[in-house]
Amino acid sequence: MPKYDYACPECGVFEQHGGYDATSVKCACGLRAKRQAVYSQAVIFKGGGFTKTVLPPPGDPAEASIMQGELKKRGWDADRAISELRENTVTDEEGNRSIDLAGMTQTA
């Protein structure tokens, strides 16, 4: 049996196993608790997805070199960006890593 959320007027909302057709169950306090409405998902993802539509296939070096050339035309240099990220990564005493933006250049 699946779990559903039920609302008791005395105890509040709780989760309990219930039958598909059971609209209410008996709460621990003795009152009847009504099953809460089940809502479907709010976001629907359609299409091929980011990795299929934006990024080149990983096994195609010709496509990757064309993409790097296009990025360089627009002022992006992936190698420099990666090296700057590595140089400006700091680790605190708890082991958390972050990027020190003060040491970064303004252009990519």
TrEMBL record:
<dbReference type="InterPro" id="IPR013429">
    <property type="entry name" value="Regulatory_FmdB_Zinc_ribbon"/>
</dbReference>
<protein>
    <recommendedName>
        <fullName>Putative regulatory protein FmdB zinc ribbon domain-containing protein</fullName>
    </recommendedName>
</protein>
<feature type="domain" description="Putative regulatory protein FmdB zinc ribbon">
    <location>
        <begin position="1"/>
        <end position="38"/>
    </location>
</feature>
<feature type="compositionally biased region" description="Basic and acidic residues">
    <location>
        <begin position="88"/>
        <end position="97"/>
    </location>
</feature>
<feature type="region of interest" description="Disordered">
    <location>
        <begin position="88"/>
        <end position="108"/>
    </location>
</feature>
